[in-house]
Each structure stands twice: as structure tokens, then as C-alpha cells.
Amino acid sequence: MNLNQLVNSFSNTANQVGHQVGQYIDGQATGGLLSFFATGNVVCLVARFTGKALQIVASKDGRLVVDALGVEGPQAFNTHWTVVNEGNNVIRLHNNNNYLCINNAQILVIPQVTGVPVGAETKLRVSHPNYNFVTLESVKEPGNFITMNQLGQPLPGAMDPMSRHFVPRLLHSPYGSTTYVAPHSYRL
User: Could you give the CA distance from residue 71 to residue 53 in angstroms, rounded to a whole number?
Assistant: First the structure.
């Protein structure tokens, strides 16, 4: 083994360890904006790029899709996401049993069929990379995030960290006001 191979091997191992440590830390983080993601809570996710809510809409061909052009509010039901928390900051988000997911690097909405459990593609790791925003990364496909461009359209595989940022707004909690943490102001 020559020196270049040894350095590359060490570098790859260090990157893998760093990724695993990061996932462990993300999985143990609590409080702040992460407290919004308790099972049963209903949240609205405001995209940093558009300043508008992540919503379910019907495409021209009748499929359910997401965009980041929704209005916020108690009557804007297509922007309300119910949280299912599976522990270690792994969540599922659904709107009337239509689950947000990443499948084959595509950002999709999958309706749950009665009696059929939802797939692993609906598991998202919520992280709090900075004070004001959260990100949603696929558990099944690490490195793929829920991302939106400046026009509010899904942007699979986006490398711009800002396209991954969402401000969660807690709309309802079955736990009362003790779970609520006021959202921080943010700048687009």
C-alpha cells in the first residue's frame, strides 16, 4: 500500500466516523425548535427560500405533490403536517394520511392505504443545524433532504444548504402549551 492509498483510506474512515458521530448527536438533540416534533403535534413548515408554507397540492395530472407556496393559517389545512415521532429525531409527517417522503432522491407525497403500513421512505431525520431553522433528511437515503427552490418547487439533490431550511410553526399540540416554543424571527 503506497502513501496515497493510506491517506485516502484514513480520510474515508474519518469521514465515515464523522458522519456517524453527527447522526448520533442529531439523534440525541432535543429542545428548541426540535420540541415541535412530538407525536401528535401539528406543524406548518415555512421554507427559507420562499417564506411560504410547505403544502400539498394537486398536480395537473391529478397526483398529490408538495410545493413551498402555501399560506399560513388555521384554515390552510393543506399546510398542516401531523408529526409521528419514532425517537432519535426520526419523524414522519403526514397531511390527512398523505405522507411526505423521499424515494429514489425524489420528494413525493405517498397516500397511506388503509391497513398497509407506510414505508421507510417516509422516515425523515429532523436536525437543527442552526438557531433558526430545521432540516429534514431521508433516513432511507442519507444525504437527500426535503429541499425547495426560490420558486417554491421541490429541488431534489440540492446542494445549497438554504434550500433545506424550514422554520417550523407549532399549530396544535395535544400536550398543551408546555410543548410550545415560540418561533424565532428569521431573515430570508
Answer: 6
What is residue 90's DSSP assignment? E
Residues 83-128 have pLDDT tens digits of 999 999 999 999 999 999 999 999 999 999 888 899 999 999 999 8
Partnered with residue 83 across adjacent β-strands are 93
Nearest-angstrom CA–CA distance, 39 and 99: 14
User: pTM here?
Assistant: 0.78
Domain topology for 31-176: Trefoil (Acidic Fibroblast Growth Factor, subunit A) (2.80.10)
pLDDT-based confidence at residue 145 (cuts at 50, 70, 90) = very high
User: Which residue is associated with the grid cell 458522519?
Assistant: 19
Cell of residue 57, nine digits = 397540492
**Distance from the Cα of residue 37 to its chain's centroid:** 10
Residue 37: other Cβ atoms inside 10 A: 25
